[in-house]
Amino acid sequence: MPFDVLGEDVVEIVRERGFDVATEPQRRAIPKVVGGGNLLLISPTGSGKTEAISLPVLSLIEGGEGIQALYITPLRALNRDIVGRLEWWGDKLGLDVQVRHGDTTSYRRRQQALDPPDLLVTTPETLQAILPGSRMREHLSNVRHVIVDEIHDLADSKRGIQLSLALERLEEAAGGFQRLGLSATVGNPRDIMNLLVGVDRGCELVWIEASEPFDFLIESPLPETGVDRVKRKTMLSREMSGHLMRMIELIESHKSTLIFVNTRQMAETLSSRMNLLDRTVGVHHGSLSKERRIEVEDSFKDGGLDALICTSSMELGIDVGHVDLVIQYNSPRQVFRLLQRVGRSGHSIEKDSKGVVLSSNPDDIAESGVIIEKALNNDLEDIVPRTMCYDVLANQISGLALEVDDLTLDRAYRLVKKAYPYKDLTKDGLERVLNQLSQARVVSFEDNMVKRRGSTWKYYYSNLSMIPDESTYEVRDIASGRPLARLDESFVAGFAKPGEVFITEGKMWRILSMEDDKIKVEEIKDPQGTIPTWVGEEIPVPYMVAQSVGKVRREVKTAIEKDEKVDFDSLRLSGESVDKIIDVVGRQLDNGFPVPTDKEIVGELGKREVILNCCFGHRVNKTLGQAVTSLLASRIGGSVGLDVDPYRITLKLPGKTRTSIVKEVFPVDPSHLEPILMMSLKNTSQFKWELMKVAKKFGVVRKDAEYTSYDTEKLLEIYKDTPLYKEAMKEILNYKLDIKTSKEVLNAIGSDISVSWKNGHSPIGRLGKESGVDLISPEETDETIIRTIEERIKDDRTLLFCIHCGDWKTTKKIRHVRGDPECPVCDSRYIAALKPWEEEKIKKYKAGKNDKDVKNLIKSANIVLSHGKQGVTVLAGRGVGPTAASRILRDLPEGEGLYRKIYNEERKYARTHMFWD
C-alpha cells in the first residue's frame, strides 16, 4: 500500500479517514513525491489526486520555523474545500494549516506574520502580495514544497506566466524547493510541466486516465405534448420550451444533476424559467457574491436542490457532493471543457461519468458530436501558455526591486530567464522594459542598477492581478441586507436606474435606489425582466474541432451522393440529431450549392452580404475576416461590417458596392497577412482597449482611468513601437487571433483546400443567422418588448421649451403631455422637446449661439410643431435625436407601430453610439 511510505502515523490516520484502498493516482504519485522530485500529476476529477500530492507533503513537513509548504489554487472558492480537508489531515498530524487570500482579515494576516502556519493555502495573487514583505518573506524562506492546484486553469492566461516568475522570486528567497502540479487532462502536458518547473529543472509526469470514462448522448428533442403550456408560462420559444421539458424529465429521473451552460445570461434565463415551473434549482456563476455561491454549493451538496445550473465556475474541483448526471446545454465548444464538465458526474475514477448534451442547430449538434469523439479518444486541444508578456515582466521586476536592495540588470536577467515563458528574452528586451518603467517613474534604472522609488510600492500592489479590471456595483437585497451579485459598469450606465427590473439568482429584482457603488433592490414576481449583461468573450471553438465538423459534412455529402448510410456511432448522436445534420446537407445539395467542408471554402454572394463558409474555428476565421475587411475598406473607401462564427465569415458591404469585389481580395496572400493586420488593427477599438489595459499594467495610465473618457489616440501616438505597444499588439495577434494557423490555411488554398463561389445564400450559410435557440418566443418577444418600450417612454420625462417666446419651460411625463403641446404664455405650438438633462441647450439658445446643440433644439421644435405629441414621444427615445426622429416619423409603414420604430432606433444606437464622434 503506497501509504506505508508515509510512516505509521499517517497510515493510521488514512484508515481513520476511510481510505481503505488507494486510488491509482495515489499509488503512482505518493512514492515519487516522497522521493523529492518535481512532479506533474494529470488525473480526472474525483480521483483522489489532491491527497496523492498533499498527504506525502504533509508527512515530509518537519517541525521548524516559518512556512514549510505552499498550496496555490487559482480560485478563492476552491480554498474552502481544500482547507477543510487539509486542516483535518494537519490537525491529526499536529500541523498548522491556514488560508490566505484577498478576503483574509487584517487580524488574521497579522497573526500569520507573527506565527506562520506550517502549510499556507493561497492564490497566485496573494503570493505576489506577501513576497515583498520583510517578515513574510523571512517565513517564506523556509518553503520546501510548493503545490500548484488546477495549474491548467492558469496556463493559458497572464496569471500563469505571472506565477512562473513569482516562483522564481520565491526561489531567490527560499533556495530550491519541490514543485508539484495538479492538472486536468490536457493535450500538451510538456508545456504545463515547463510552466511549473522553469528552465533546466527535471519533472516527472504521472498521467492517469479514467478506467470507464464517459457515457454520452447528444439529444435534439422535438417539442412534445404540453410544450405550448410551458411556452406560455415561460415565454420561451417552442424549441427551447421542448428542451426545458427534457431537462426537467432528466432531472426528475436522477438524484443530483448539474446543468452546464456557456454564458451567465443563459444560466440566469434557465434558472428563472425553471423556477416558474416550480422546480427547485440553483444558479452558480462568477458574478454572484461569495456568500451566495457558498450557500448554493452547500444547498446542492445537502440535497436541497434538484439541480444546479452553472458556468465554467463549477468546472474546477469545487466539492458539491455526488453528481449522477451532467447536462450540457448546447455545444461545450472545446474538448477540454467537456471533459471537465461531464467529469463532475460520478466524481470518482471508478465510476462512469454520465452526460447528456442538448443541442438543436445542425452545426451545434455536429460540433458536440466531434467533441465527444475526441474526448473518448483523449484527443484534446493544446493549452498554450503565454510567453514573453512585457506587462507581466514590468510588474514582476518592480516586485523584485522591492525585495532586493542592490538589484543589477544581470541579476534580474538571470532570474527572469529561469522562468520558461521568458527563456528567449534578450537582455536588450529587458532593458527596454526597464527604460519604460523608468520613464513612468515606477523604478529607477541607471548604470545597470534597478532601484525602487517611492511610487514603486503603490504601482506594484495596484497591479498584482493580471485579471482585467472592471468597475462593478454591488447589488444588495433590501429585505435581508445580503449581497446578491455585482453588475458591471457598462450595464449600470446603459440600463440600471430606479424602477428597472433585471434577473439574478434566477429571480426578478426591482432597483429601488443607487448610491455610489451600491444598488438596493427588492424581489418581485413579474416574469418580464432584463438579464444583467456581463462582459465576457464567447468560448472560442478551436481549429481542430471546426475542421472535424467540416469532415462530418464531407462524409454526409459523400454518403448522400452515393445513397449510402452515414456511420454516426462514434459521435453518440440520437436519431433526431442525426436527421438534422443529414437534412441541412441534403437541402444544400438540393439547392445547387457546394457543401463547405474541411477541404472546401464556399463563398456566397448576396445583395449586400457575402458569406465565406470556412470550417476553421473562431480565431482563424476572425483573423481572415479582419484582413479581408481591411483590404475591402481600402478599396471601397468605406467601412465593412464583419461577423464571425466557427464556420462562417460574414461581410456586410456598404451602399451599392458590388459583392463580387470580395473575390478580388480573398484569398489573402499569406506573406501579406501579418503586415495587413498590424496596419489595420492599430486603428480599431479592440487594439486601443488592449493598449489601455497594458498601459495601466505599466503604470503610465491611472488604474481607475475609464476607456470611454481617455484619449487613446494620444496614448497610441506617444507609445508607438515601445514594449507597451508591442505587448498590446502581440496579445491580439497571438491570442485573440491566430496568425500561424491562418497562414497555414492560406498556403493550403489551391492544393489541399479549394474555393468556390455561388450567388445567393445557402441553407448552411443561413445557419449562422439561425444558430442557437432563441431564448424568448418570437411573438412573446415582440409583444412584450414593444409593450415595455411603450410603458417606459410614457413614464419618461421630457423638458418642453417654447422657442417662440423663450419664457416658458416645464418638465413632465410623456403620458401627461397633451395632444398638441402649447405654450401657456404665448399660445405658440413652436415647442422644443428635450431630454431633462439637456437644459444647457436652452441656455445656449437664449444666449444667441448657433452651434450644433441650438440647431438640434430648433429641429426638435419643428418636429413637435408638425407631429404634436407623437413627435414628443419619439424624441424621448434613448439615443433618438431630431434626425432619427424625423426618419421615424417620415416613414411609418402600414401595420408597423410607432414604438416598434423607436425600439429599432434604440437598438441601433446601443450598438453604434460608442463609435460616434
Automatic annotation (TrEMBL):
<dbReference type="Pfam" id="PF19306">
    <property type="entry name" value="WHD_Lhr"/>
</dbReference>
<keyword id="KW-0413">Isomerase</keyword>
<dbReference type="GO" id="GO:0004386">
    <property type="term" value="F:helicase activity"/>
</dbReference>
<dbReference type="InterPro" id="IPR052511">
    <property type="entry name" value="ATP-dep_Helicase"/>
</dbReference>
<dbReference type="Pfam" id="PF08494">
    <property type="entry name" value="DEAD_assoc"/>
</dbReference>
<dbReference type="Pfam" id="PF00271">
    <property type="entry name" value="Helicase_C"/>
</dbReference>
<keyword id="KW-0238">DNA-binding</keyword>
<keyword id="KW-0067">ATP-binding</keyword>
<keyword id="KW-0378">Hydrolase</keyword>
<dbReference type="InterPro" id="IPR011545">
    <property type="entry name" value="DEAD/DEAH_box_helicase_dom"/>
</dbReference>
<dbReference type="InterPro" id="IPR027417">
    <property type="entry name" value="P-loop_NTPase"/>
</dbReference>
<feature type="domain" description="Helicase ATP-binding">
    <location>
        <begin position="30"/>
        <end position="204"/>
    </location>
</feature>
<protein>
    <submittedName>
        <fullName>Lhr-like helicase with C-terminal Zn finger domain</fullName>
    </submittedName>
</protein>
<comment type="similarity">
    <text>Belongs to the Lhr helicase family. Lhr-Core subfamily.</text>
</comment>
<keyword id="KW-0227">DNA damage</keyword>
<dbReference type="Pfam" id="PF00270">
    <property type="entry name" value="DEAD"/>
</dbReference>
<dbReference type="InterPro" id="IPR013701">
    <property type="entry name" value="Lhr-like_DEAD/DEAH_assoc"/>
</dbReference>
<dbReference type="InterPro" id="IPR017170">
    <property type="entry name" value="Lhr-like"/>
</dbReference>
<keyword id="KW-0347">Helicase</keyword>
<dbReference type="GO" id="GO:0005524">
    <property type="term" value="F:ATP binding"/>
</dbReference>
<feature type="domain" description="Helicase C-terminal">
    <location>
        <begin position="243"/>
        <end position="391"/>
    </location>
</feature>
<keyword id="KW-0234">DNA repair</keyword>
<dbReference type="InterPro" id="IPR045628">
    <property type="entry name" value="Lhr_WH_dom"/>
</dbReference>
<dbReference type="GO" id="GO:0003677">
    <property type="term" value="F:DNA binding"/>
</dbReference>
<dbReference type="InterPro" id="IPR014001">
    <property type="entry name" value="Helicase_ATP-bd"/>
</dbReference>
<dbReference type="InterPro" id="IPR001650">
    <property type="entry name" value="Helicase_C-like"/>
</dbReference>
<dbReference type="GO" id="GO:0140097">
    <property type="term" value="F:catalytic activity, acting on DNA"/>
</dbReference>
<dbReference type="GO" id="GO:0006281">
    <property type="term" value="P:DNA repair"/>
</dbReference>
<dbReference type="GO" id="GO:0016887">
    <property type="term" value="F:ATP hydrolysis activity"/>
</dbReference>
<keyword id="KW-0547">Nucleotide-binding</keyword>
